[in-house]
Write a structure and sequence with these properties.
One of its GO terms (molecular function) is FMN binding. InterPro entries: Pyridox_Oxase_Alr4036_FMN-bd, Split_barrel_FMN-bd. There is one protein chain. This protein has two domains: 212 residues, Pnp Oxidase, Chain A; 34 residues, no CATH class. Helix content is 27%, strand content 27%. The protein has eight helices and twelve strands. The strands form two sheets. Strands 1, 2, 3, 4, 5, 7, 8, 10, 11 and 12 form a ten-stranded mixed beta sheet that branches. The chain has a two-stranded parallel ribbon with strand order 6-9. The longest helix has 14 residues.
Amino acid sequence: MLESLALWSPSFTSALQTELETGDNSFTLFNFSNVDANNYPSTRTCVSRGFLFNNEKSNVLVFTTDKRSSKYNDLLLNPRFDACYYFGKMRKQFRFKGTVRMISDDLTPNVIYIPKDENEEGSSEEEPLGMNENEVSCHSCSKKVETIGFHQPEENQSLVSQYLSKIHDNEKKFKISEPLHYKLFSPSYLGTMKDSAVSLAELGQRLTLQESDNKPISRTPTKEEWQAERLRVWNSLSRSMKTSYKKPTPGSPLTEENRKLLDAINRGVDGNNSSSGYENFVVVCMFVELVDEVVLGGSGYDHRYLYRLTSNDTWKEYEVCP
């Protein structure tokens, strides 16, 4: 199987679309948290820019930032994140944990994907959370998911805490420059493999021609595709949003020179074109590993679901106490 929606995606995208259709805003805000260079938590309100490559099946969420900001430099040192979306109309909250990769003028993600052998696909990984499992129907799709029963009193704690403590030691030396294993495919690769108008013979011929032209067939996104995605997101921004990237460095002193520059930019007489500031533009890609969904049903009928990405590149869902 090439790509597929994560178990949390149908519920999340449904809430996202409902909020946009029934709300007063044409955009979605969320809170993004990371740790700064001094180990202080840092939280900002950001604008969601949807999914990577404008493809929900990538399961990677994106937003933008300024290369000159402290957030960019902090994420270079520690790419771990926590993001929280709350949808008031649906009364749903989603918290995402994982690691980021960024696309700037001199930085592209190094994502690798090595699929399991066919004889390993049916194997199950060791369960890290210490649970008794039973299959139930997924609340947002037709797939089977798992419920949890604690078999020891001392395990009556947050499953998020259990999961994070399990992976903590492995993440101590995690750097943004390190290759990231994630089930993410190149858009051109997907286009070639999914072209329903191409017969198997034609598909084989096409791939052979690519190989004969010394053009390796990349399963994961190429540098050119990452940069094309950065440009796509840039082009989706409003004019006023683009303008922010050519303003003085965020957080710098408001000197008389900077005051004059801001005034000129706001009046559109700074002498720069519409693409000015692109060199400061960064797309932040949130590669999700753990999702915590809370559904406030009213009258005490609340629900909570945890989703985690396994080492087999599949998602597992657990229903837990709200």
